[in-house]
Amino acid sequence: MKFSIPVLTSALAASALVSGAPLGRRDGRGAVYFITNEPEGNMVIVANINADGTLGLNRAVSTSGRGSHGLADPVGPDALFSQGSIKASATGKILAAVNSGSNTVSLFSIDSSDPTNINLIGEPVSSEGEFPMSLAINGAGNQVCVLNGGTVNGVNCFSVDSKLGLVAMPNTLRSLGLNQTTPATGPAGTTSHIAFSEDGKQLIASVKGVPPTPGFLAVWDVNTDGTLSADFQTVTPGSGGLLPFSMTVIPGKNAILATDAGVGFDIFDFGGQNQSSVVPITGQGATCWSSFSNQTGNFYLTDIITSTVTEVNVDDNLKGTIVKQYPKLQALQRSTMTSPLSGARTSSTSWLLTRRPATAAGVTINANNLQGMTSFVKQ
């Protein structure tokens, strides 16, 4: 996928970006979204997916919340130590974003005829925890769950109301009991990602370990009314697994591929005895983010240290093998050709896409704060 970077040549165009009025072409197949995650004010940046595959900056819309950066030495581009800080649902026609600095979650409606047109529904709601950093939306698009990673950590869920926005659901606030700070201190020892299982019957949160102690997945059962089991089941990676990070559902297998920043990736099989396997990636620095391509049937994993995308195939027996690796700029092109990823690699992608027009429009873009990436494709 090529990048189309429109340059704002007038004050009118710049003000349109800030106000949320449309810019650029509107002949697109859909839109991609990411957040600025700025402490002074968080914004959703929206770009067209044009008919020819290029991306074009369209608008910036305030979340009415604030961003934050986790505590790390050195300070780097992975501000929330997570995947899924912004999430779209084609079924629900909604977009949700975390505000880690104000401990809230914002919900937007998506115009399916023009997915760049998003509008805040209601007001941001409390995440009921601290340092929210990842979101999951169920298959029906009517339930949103958030993962908090600060001093008050755990999960909480909301129902979706077309007028009120997010409405807290009873019996879904659950603690992880981690010894953390606000903002979270990491990357090691932090929460990573929240996701529903493919059948929607389980809610899963990944937690990185502090080497040599491995991390784990926390798994809650989801009842028919959307409430969660009182306690979570702990599922640990196989021998050698350390830092389970992003999670991507393996279609049709009741299983999850999780990147592992300490070794490569882990495969968790929930269909039998909750078995898991670990697959090293030779030469990896920290493999953190993942996505699945329906087009190729493969997974794409990104490494924050080496800027490499690793293409992975998982067979019917849940054996994972490395297909090919794409270094640096080649990896950047490959990752955007398949499916948007979330994290620092796509933060860098988004920063390249937006820095010139956003600066002209007065929108603050900091590569160390910019987070997440999700997409809405017209049906």
UniProtKB/TrEMBL annotation:
Which key words are in the record? Signal
What is the superkingdom listed in this entry's lineage? Eukaryota
Q: Which InterPro entries match?
A: Lactonase_7-beta_prop, WD40/YVTN_repeat-like_dom_sf
Tell me which positions the record assigns to the signal sequence: 1-20
The identity of this protein, by name, is 3-carboxymuconate cyclase
